[in-house]
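Operator note (shift B, R.M.): manual run for Pecanex-like protein requested after the automated queue skipped it. Running by hand, logging everything below so the morning shift can see what happened. Input copied straight from the record, untouched. If output looks odd, do not overwrite the archive copy; leave it for review.
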Amino acid sequence: MGPDVPLLNDYKQEFFWKRFPQTVLGGPRLKLGYCAPPYVYVHQLVLFLTPWLLGGIGTALYQLRVLDDTWAGVVSGMLMLGAGATLQGLAQCMARRTGVVAAQVLHVLFVVLPVLWALGMLSPLDALLLWAMEQTLVHGLGGSAMSTNIRLLVMFLSSTCVAICTFFIPSSLGIVLFTVATGYLLSQDLSQLLVLVKGGTSTLGLGWWGLPLSLLLLLGALTEAGLLHQLYPNQTLGNQTLSVNSIENWGSSVVPLIPQGVIGLLLIALFLITRLLRELQGACVLGGAVLNPLYPKRVMTAQAFRRKTQGLRVAGIIRRMLLNLVSPLAMIAFLSVDESLAKLHTASLAIGFTRAFRVVWQNSEAGLLQMVLVVIIRLAGGHRAVHWHELGTTVQLILISLIINRVSQFVYKLNFALTVLITSWTENKQRRQSAGTLLALNAALCPLLLAVVVLSALLSAPLLPLFTLPVFLVGFPRPLRSWPGTPGTACPCPDSVYYQQLCKRLASAIRPALANGTFGSCSPGTHYLGRFQGRLLWISVLERGYGYCTVNIKGLELQETSCHTVEARRVDEVFEGAFDHVERPGQCFRLLNPHWGNALTPCSVLPVMVYSDAQNVLTGIIDSPDHLRQLNSDFLKTLVWILLRYCVQDLTCGTHRTKGQSVQTSGRKSQSSQHTVHLEPGPAVVKVGIDSQVRPDSSSSSHLRGQDSSSLSSLTDWSDEDDLFGPMPVRRPIKMMVRTEEKQKELGLGVSLPGSVEIHSLYESMALSSLPTLRPLGMGLGLGLPIVDKGKDNIPTLTSTTVPCNSQPLNFTSPHSELFSLPTDWRTAPLPFPKIQVLQPCFPEAWFFFCLSQLVVESFGEGDFEQVMQGLREDRALLELYTQVVLSCCVALGADTQVFNPNLLFRLYCGDGPWTEGLEWLRTNKELHQLTLRAFRYSVKLLVDQASLGPVESLEELYTTLQDYHDNWFIGLVTDCGWQDSVVQEKPFLFSLGHDLTMGTYTSRVLSLQENLVQVGVLNEEGVRGQWANLSWELLYATNDDEERYSIQAHPVMLRNLTVQAADPPLGYPIYSSPLIHLRCL
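Run finished. Output pasted below as returned.
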């Protein structure tokens, strides 16, 4: 899209220019709507113009010569006086309740309310209350911004109660002990304690071990505070105020240095050490302008990264101990001997000490900086400023906290404003026709621009760039979360599962990075961007306390649009410039960050267990005749292995086996299906009856005959691939009376007899050359003739028209064969017997007995191995059973072709082979169909592996390969439910086939779970808040929902498109958003 994309759609412009004047003028609608009657708008207009009408009455009387100018003025004045008296009466009522000053403020506020609303500065009531509570909690009570509204309300009320209780405690020692204890407790995430009580596991925490450790630390802090306060109860600064002179005389006996002064110097040393160690952890220093020369560059593996950052990790652990253990105790010591404790019974000091002892735990790094600044001001002679000195240490800390926060916000907002201004001209695709005019206006009105930035910083409100153009407004104050709902809402899609797997792994990797200072200060409202291959992760810090941090992780779309691709490419360039450290000419500029000024500043790389995605084109593999010819043999071997493995797993999971005794099972259940086939218990010798082998789908022959398949089935089955001289298309079977070898009348498989035309129905599944000489109708069927003994009649009798090999029962000669028996329903395939007979030589008999021997060792051990295997080898019934089932599945699936073509292979892999009656039968046996489909997919994977790594050279290697597929791989389709389940369960490898319709090629996709390096950088938090504020204004107020609007177009510096995606739905559209993640950072 070009830079001159319309800011508003044509159909939205009319609506906007109707609403905006209405808002500015305070309500009158200057244009009639679509459904309201006209008198409504006339009434509003008259009401708005009432003051003008009252003043105009006197003018009209004067112009009409009714009154002279004096009396006309008197009449107008009286009318205006009446209206004014009414307003003043209301104002006086308000003044009696809130005071004169409040009434005057309300007068001014009411006048500018329409303007504030039109400019987006008027906050909704709920957002205003939440913002006020958050600001009071953070800067007045020492707490943190909270992750949800409920937590914010509970924490605000709890902290307020603590401050009130502090005011009424009479003893200074009691105040010290009470505020230290409550500050520690309120700085913890007590919701994790409830999780432990309920029997769960606290998220990435220490579990119950954290309770005694926390209690020990709290007791140590209370003991230290109480002892110091008792030893130095009446310390006053007086003539011994910490100053330059006291430092010069330190060591002499003239002016001894007070304990608070010594502790203050210790705090300065701690601050310098911890800040230096924190700067060494990240990839950039000095605000991202300079690359860290100690940070490893061009690291490709997680092992190499750990090896090269071992020294930095040691420095991070030292910083962690100093910041989390030494610094809180030092700050408690500093406050315990403060002179303000002697005059605590004032509201300001009670709030100040409550906040001071709270921030020691809640945010040790920020509290250390604030106390260091107090100490430095005293060293610089701040005690000479009487008003500053009279405030007391705790109130000074509150003021310094506000100043630091507002100054940092001003710097970030000014950086964001300059980025929008400069890139509106330097970025060609952002340069609109009005860019020059806007730049000139901002230059001419530079003081106004600075005033807007200052005002937004003072209010802690987002700086709103209108339509992301260099036209800046002050957004309405809102909490740091920017969005009202609880995190966890997303727009899910099939790709969301990859972020779901990555989320917990990434959270585990973030923990040490946050604790060591790799991510900087990491205060609530900070946003990070993670990048790995095609995945983009948005990490938001929502809450921070002593030793914990609450974050929300979002996953952005993987189907990259053009805008998404442009910004993702720039993200890669930013990370490459910092982590790959490409050499640039000139020694002076070698360490400068080439992308300084971008909204993204690189922080670190994190070793994370994540799926790497590899896609390859199978040209030359899937279309190679040599490889495809091998597929037939591999499929039969794989199916044999899977069926045997199915029996063994079924027995080991569902039955109890004793050595040397056959096992009678009551049911079988496959791993890949919930379908269960029940078997009746029986002796070791299995007699398979005709009725149990050939059961049609329905229970009545009349129902089957009602399905007229004699014409429709033949038409459906007809195709150009049919062999005119081979097997005829199979019709739907029905039950009929046939002659059996046991001299009984039984139900067998036949076909419909719609007349004498069906004389060939008994033999339609055979080749013409194998048909016997035709006899009159009924001679082969025995219709109307008495039963004749087989020995007295040489006419061959058939028990089934499809699989005559089932006519004889299976007599297992080995007592262990029953362990490997298959369900009876799997032997009833309505397939032409000649096809099965032709394929019998293809059955891998040697492979069958090899797999059988391996499974016997796993099941019975090596003690009875020879005896058991000898019996199984001699049992021909077991071999015939597997031969029949395996070849039937091969034919039913459609994998009995001599040479595959890529299209057929892909269709069979997807389970979408050409329809046949055999395939219909296979699909009715859901468990067998799943096993057969899995075997074919395994064989395709084996084909690809052999083409890439070389052929399998032995049966042992093939057995090991298939076992590896079974244990460590999911082989299927990306659209399968099992694919997503395997990702969540972290299956080591996943394999799938695909078809690129555009290129006409077949592709393979392999996901490998391994430890990879995820790149993470910090974003300009005020830039994110400003763009989200514009998104809210543009979509909710201006109702500009155009998917191609200007404010959503790619911006490589501001990362505008990615920022919009990461907003909470319905305005944003992340495909995954984690629930609140609690991280322990001690």
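Quick read of the result: Residues 1028 and 1063 are 7 Å apart (CA to CA). Residues 236-257, 654-807 have pLDDT under 50 and may be disordered.
Leaving this for review. - R.M.
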